[in-house]
Design goal:
The structure is a single chain. By secondary structure, this protein is an alpha/beta fold. The protein has two domains: 162 residues, Bordetella uptake gene, domain 1 (D-Maltodextrin-Binding Protein, domain 2, 3-Layer(aba) Sandwich); 127 residues, Periplasmic binding protein-like II (D-Maltodextrin-Binding Protein, domain 2, 3-Layer(aba) Sandwich). It has eleven helices and ten strands. Strands 1, 2, 3, 4, 5, 6, 7, 8, 9 and 10 form a ten-stranded mixed sheet that branches. Helix 4 packs across helix 11. It is globular and about 60 Å long. The termini are far apart.
């Protein structure tokens, strides 16, 4: 009886067959559900499954601090090759402006995945029927026209309107920027009238735009976004082009073999038809860049962000 009980315990623990317990790959999203990071992570996980890539992928959310809570968790997971984090320019900005005690420079860069233009949106009954009307009101009284974004100071939803304000001759420090932790909270603020307009990624509100709840006044990219009847900022006479990006990093302390395995996994995702279809569906540009080259890119983006914020007169403690 004792031997039988011991055998049962060993089987349940996965040790009876002499095999290690199988590990499940997890992707951490450092923003709430419905954010751009969340959409990207869940789309990637679904594409991996549909493409038959040999790992089950779980996506979970750990919001807070504009992504820095997730970044701290990533640092605590040193040596864990079964955890990835979806991140982008927003985390770079949050790390700098919040003076976080951890750094992306210590993470293991895996790959940059996409680039995405932003959109300027208003709710359906907004008095601003086009971008010209919004700009006129904004110029007349910047403090009276609140803009909302789903990223912290220094993130894409913050930088895009600040660059537009600067181009219009407005003092970025005078802009009433309302920060929300992700696209879901921002959507509620736009629809409830807490902000006059919002800035977000082109992929975040397709249902609300199609249903007529939101109107897109402009896109921030070089070209018009497919499926959106909205001009670029440059078409509207504002010489600003702004594009966000998103990628994947892993905890520090991984072996060369573990890094190669994770990079290979994401490379197979990138080459799959399922991922190509996702890029087209969400209007994302393929911006694939892997390994050390991606790490160098993050370093360059950090330096560019610091320079841009200084040029706009916005310090790390602003707002």
């Amino acid at each position: 009886m004792l031997c039988a009980a011991l055998a049962a315990v060993l089987v349940l623990s996965g040790c009876a067959a002499g095999e290690p317990e199988s590990a499940e790959l997890r992707i951490m999203v450092p923003n709430p559900p419905g954010s751009g990071y969340d959409v990207t992570a869940r789309t990637a996980a679904r594409a991996m499954g549909d493409a038959g890539i040999d790992r089950d992928v779980e996506v979970f959310n750990l919001p807070g601090g504009g992504g820095t809570v997730g970044l701290r968790r990533l640092m605590y997971e040193r040596g864990n090759a079964d955890l990835l984090m979806l991140m982008g320019l927003g985390v770079v900005g949050s790390e700098h402006t919040s003076q976080a005690p951890v750094s992306l420079a210590d993470a293991t860069p895996i790959a940059r995945l996409i680039a995405e233009p932003g959109i300027i949106v208003v709710r359906a009954d907004s008095p601003f029927r086009d971008l010209a009307g919004l700009i006129a009101a904004w110029r007349a009284d910047p403090a009276a026209v609140a803009v909302g974004g789903g990223s912290s100071l220094g993130g894409p939803d913050h930088l895009a309107p600040m660059l537009v304000a600067d181009e219009l001759g407005l003092e970025p420090a005078d802009v009433d920027y309302q920060r929300y932790d992700g696209g879901g909270d921002l959507l509620a603020a736009i629809l409830s009238g807490q902000v006059a307009f919002g800035v977000s990624g082109v992929s975040e509100y397709p249902q609300q735009v199609r249903s007529g709840q939101l109107r897109v006044l402009a896109v921030t990219g070089e070209e018009r976004a497919p499926g959106l009847d909205a001009p670029t900022l440059r078409e509207s006479g504002i010489d600003v082009v702004f594009t966000n990006w998103r990628g994947i990093v892993a905890p520090p302390g991984l072996s060369a073999e573990e890094v190669a395995e994770l990079t290979g996994l994401v490379s197979r995702l990138h080459g799959s038809p399922q991922w190509r279809a996702a890029l087209e569906r969400y209007g994302w540009a393929d911006a694939y860049l892997e390994g050390e080259a991606f790490g160098e890119f993050i370093g360059a983006e950090t330096a560019r962000l610091v320079e841009t914020l200084a040029g706009l007169g916005l310090s790390a403690a602003a707002g």
